[in-house]
């Protein structure tokens, strides 16, 4: 264990003032990435496949745009594979889409030599003069693809028709595609028995509209502690999120194979941070693995301007999705998405403290030179203060020399967690410095926070994932966030039930 | 004119390093203000009445909480009046509510000596052990009030039942109250023939929920260019807005006297800034004056912490509300609220320029020592740039010495306006520095902005009020925002069709 820490320190020192990509979040080695695409699990070889919107030529969005590809055994570390699908012309793109495993060969693309668990079909948007939904299939389990000769399989003669997400709906025994008429604010639901011929079943519109809809997705999710499920419709909007730029929202309801009927008229956000967009769920996951999803961890308002060198953007961690009734105020529990991170790592170094009532300027400290760590914090608010008091429980996350910090914390009078990610390293008027999340205590005045910090991204899971907030941040010269200090400006206001810090390695 | 400018300069100098309250936005002279309440127009005396949530004793929220009172002839300058209504006990409050003019004496509170246009009845929440809806009436046109002896008139035995807004609904010949079961996420619609006895007609729930609902309001609003109207349901949420803290949303639909039926499932925000909450419309406005409303121009996340001295918070300007079909992308027009500011002022000084294609580092400048000015900017984007270009049209608004600035601007690649209001004068992790608004051009690549800057508030009206963004800001030592510089980082990207700056006085 000591040896591994030493190795990390040397590694960290060697890379000071150079680009350090996140370790347990997927990034391209070079070039530009946006939405995750075609996520699926290969049951035969036990391999997770991740494709993504990829411009390998420049670290910003541009055409020709490809499906990049990476694989993983543990949903944590990813091996970069060759480009999976590319456009016919340089001014075109293979835009977002999904993959299904066609076990029963409904498409006729496969013969008996292809294992049913590896009958991989991609459904994606071909972005040319217009946007159409096209197919490509793989005879080698997802590494190389052949475009279907009769493409497109769905064409409404629109320049704004995209992002097909396909699932198999067992009850109605058909493929279901959700796809957006982006600027009509319509999620369209189509059905097919062969992935080639599609019938429009219904349209769905709701929520914040912004400029346009993108990346829809419909999936059945279990309600924790019951045998029940509900259907969740995911919907991305960009630009024009109330947070600025890009956000994901969702709606909970029922689906009969033809129409999605929301259970209420509420608009729910998937994540309260500024860097969580275009979430997609994995296809063909074993039921015991749950419902798994990945989002793009950036925002179109500044994604092309962030100060990373040679590469741009990471994904979120993989998240396991369930539904549960979550307290949103003292009177109400709302059925809500619960998200927990899925990753496997080694702990290089850790510390744990418990039952400490913080006094003013007390500090609980930890160092993680690699800039990759997680923390779990369980605290109780002791005194019910009110205006004009400004009590803060603060976790400062700083560079090794302490010159730069981001500040995460909680104010019980305002009843919200905050993140101040302002640094000198990145100035952009759309890069919102201060972001917050209103969170209801999970017990009387008690809150839980699980944070994962990975070089330039912080994912926060409040109360076991009842609320989440994902944000990137940028330190000068790409120094690592190495030093943590948990502190308060008040005596006897915050009781730390427990806090642990763990430096992570893979 | 020169004389008036001189006077303002002297005034400005005298107040340097002292508290300067906004001039054409209403503020309390001292103490704390939040929601506007009981807004009504006295048709007999041609006087506008504004009441407001008021703690005269401290510059932060606390009980006893009163209805403060001010009157105006021009909706711009306000005369402070005595406290209008106060609670029975020091630990109680007269919470938000509305006023109606009971022309027909449905309550029986008035005799013939009281002019029908001055039969003033306040319906408000009494905040004690529980929250109930109470009445008070005025026999002197709104200056002093008598509480109804049979209060409360509506009690559901809840601690979270508040903010009654009452209108007269002519078609069903009854009073209609919208009021929230705040933590049940319910707007309740009640009807009454005498303001004393209320029947529950229906409930309405929608939109973004946050922690709780507050300050509902239902009103009929004309659709521009037609003889049609729609009903608009306003709804405030706090905390837990997607922007952080407090926001107002609205829904458009029909109302038959019993139920509000939204025309679609969209969630719309009234204003995209962080300081616009608890909007209320005026009662008894002459039809020719339109639908007029005022909001509180702050946010509960930091309202009690802003660095104003002895007083806290202003209202928004009065806004005239209409509905119109607004382009939100190239394919779609959505019926939306259109808001234009209503105020009367003198122009102390002005400048106007037109037909200038900005070159890099060109600057169009203006000074307004009083810190009170408006600007109208009409520009065209000349070149369609894309990533990774970062073209900015910037309006810097600075202190006289230039030491501190806020930055307002537009980036055509990101397709949004931004405000960076970060200054050294106010650091609070909930005080979001960077706020943005996605705006569709009103003509081919053309945008209009009307801005009103009043010492520590900037209200922005895009494309004649199709989108609005209201934010406070704070300069060191409360120096005034005196200096404007309109500039760009690009050659030949922005063509200024016209720009005018006007220093305002009253």
TrEMBL record, chains A, B:
GO CC terms: extracellular region; fungal-type vacuole
Residues making up the signal peptide according to the UniProt record: 1-18
Glycosyl hydrolase family 32 N-terminal domain segment(s): 25-328
An example Gene Ontology biological process: sucrose catabolic process
Keywords: Glycoprotein, Glycosidase, Hydrolase, Signal
Entries under SUPFAM superfamilies matching the protein: Arabinanase/levansucrase/invertase, Concanavalin A-like lectins/glucanases
An example molecular function term from Gene Ontology annotations: sucrose alpha-glucosidase activity
Residue ranges of domain Glycosyl hydrolase family 32 C-terminal in the record: 350-484
A Pfam family hit: Glyco_hydro_32C
Family (UniProt): Belongs to the glycosyl hydrolase 32 family.
Protein name listed in UniProt: Invertase
Organism of provenance: Hyphopichia burtonii NRRL Y-1933
Organism classification: Eukaryota, Fungi, Dikarya, Ascomycota, Saccharomycotina
